[in-house]
Amino acid sequence: MSTDLTRMTAAALAGAIASGEASAEEAARAHLDRIGAVDEKVHAFLHVDTEGALRAARAVDAKRAAGEKLGPLAGVPLALKDLITTEGVPTTCGSKILEGWIPPYDATVTKRLKDAGVVVLGKTNMDEFAMGSSTETSAYGPTGNPWDLTRIPGGSGGGSSASIASYQAPLAIGTDTGGSIRQPASVTGTVGVKPTYGAVSRYGLVAFSSSLDQAGPCARNVLDTALLHSVIAGHDPMDSTSIDAPVPDVVAAARQGREQGIAGMRVGVVKEFAGEGYQAGVEQRFREAVEVLRGLGAEVVEISCPHFTYALPAYYLIAPSECSSNLARFDAMRYGLRVGDDGSHSAEEVTALTREAGFGDEVKRRIMLGTYALSSGYYDAYYGQAQKVRTLITRDFDAAFAAVDVLVSPTTPTTAFPIGERVDDPMAMYLADLCTIPSNLAGNAAMSVPCGLAPEDGLPVGLQIIAPPMADDRLYRVGAAVEAALTDSWGHPILEEAPSL
Amino acid sequence: MPGITREEVAHLARLSRLELSEKELDHFATQLDDIVGAVARVGEVAAEDVPPTSHPLPLTNVMRADEVRPSLTPEQALAAAPAVEEQRFRVPQILGED
């Protein structure tokens, strides 16, 4: 067939496979060929599982041939963040300490994807243990942004965002602890959703900050993102923090937003996320997107969330504290790297030598920062106080959602910055997550959807939409409506403006 | 708020089981001092009467049925171990020389 299968939406590709216009194996091969052609430049993948992908694709084709009913994404290829365990396929979390580790089990997310007939192409690059906003802290080298390969693709899920923006996969999975799905989506002109905390199982996600980590869907449009959301979300007895309640109908909400719009919905503009530190073109495209929402019949008001300015400092106490505890498991005893086991060092010395050799700078900084924040004498002033700020941020959200249905802001204050610019300036790097962090602290749902290119540099800008916990469907309704209106005004999807690789 | 000294970073590295080099100690001391200075802003918020939030979901004591379910075989559990002996994880000597 002459259509380029790598340019299709996931929904259309699944339709073509279900109707027999294309086989799942053809779809997998087309994407594997694309990876072969462009990933040397992009470096989105840490591992490509050619054999596994073709085997999974053939299984979908065999099911169809046998007359079995296929799920809505059966046969569609996907790029999986390397933080999520895959039985028999390497999982490194972008770290040397897990180089070559082959997990003995599948994460629940992996299992759900396989059960739905989604074809996992491979594992994507990321900041080490998801700590970063640029994918530069990966021990395996940075990933390029397909819009400009000298710039960052966001982080920590830069491999996932870059893979879909460069047509190496129509779908990807990310994880979002402070913005690691939404900020990469914003800077690559793609869509990403952090579901409500507990909506997607964390079983098999290598833990960074357990009270904040949440896996979610990434795609090139809102409907595809919704289809993937509904595959991975739902209660899981293997994760005791998984929500035991029905998943909101996000697919219906995406269709509703596109077809019926958002007339009568109440939208709040977060007052605190503007001004100093925000790039002019980001603010301009954001204001235009708000006008689009108004034009679609939404009632737009400004909302003040006074504690949001304390979200960043609270996060950089809570997340490192939890990370210092979670990463204690990397002790060189049961799996992963071991250094210095030569008979002259004790187990404790081997642990310290291994962690020194196996962790990168950002991971070391955060482990020490967390250890500091939790130490006696500092606990009340730092970790304890950050937990109280977390309560106040949740209260700000509660008050806002009493007045509006969704909140909006820019996803991140700037467009994609050059690789290397912030790599040794942690505080500058942390600012990339300024607008995304509050939703992790409160556990609600949030999306980034493209809202144009900044006039000064021609790079993508993201609109962040935030909904209350378990109201993830509102993101899709608003996101699909704004996507349809903007795509109409541009005359084509935003990614068609990206340079060819 | 007090800053963070090089000696404190050396102590934190020991607590964190990180065998840092002298050069790293210098580098991290400056950076951690900057970061601690920035995050100390949480102290500006008056929050004496505010309860802490440790987790976004109000969950307590999530139980599951006490049923046998499949688990890893010894071979699977040991497959990624740095060293194995007699179907066990082989670890370095637990006690140091001193």
UniProtKB/TrEMBL annotation, chain B:
Keyword Ribonucleoprotein: no
EC number, as in UniProt: 6.3.5.-
UniProt cross-references to PANTHER family, sorted A to Z: GLUTAMYL-TRNA(GLN) AMIDOTRANSFERASE SUBUNIT C, MITOCHONDRIAL (PTHR15004:SF0)
Protein name, entry field: Aspartyl/glutamyl-tRNA(Asn/Gln) amidotransferase subunit C
SUPFAM superfamilies: Glu-tRNAGln amidotransferase C subunit
Superkingdom classification of source: Bacteria
HAMAP family (alphabetical): GatC
BP GO annotations: glutaminyl-tRNAGln biosynthesis via transamidation; regulation of translational fidelity; translation
GO MF, any single term: transferase activity
Subunit structure of this chain's protein: Heterotrimer of A, B and C subunits.
Family listed: Belongs to the GatC family.
Catalysis: reaction(s): L-glutamyl-tRNA(Gln) + L-glutamine + ATP + H2O = L-glutaminyl-tRNA(Gln) + L-glutamate + ADP + phosphate + H(+); L-aspartyl-tRNA(Asn) + L-glutamine + ATP + H2O = L-asparaginyl-tRNA(Asn) + L-glutamate + ADP + phosphate + 2 H(+)
Protein's UniProt keywords contain Oxidoreductase: no
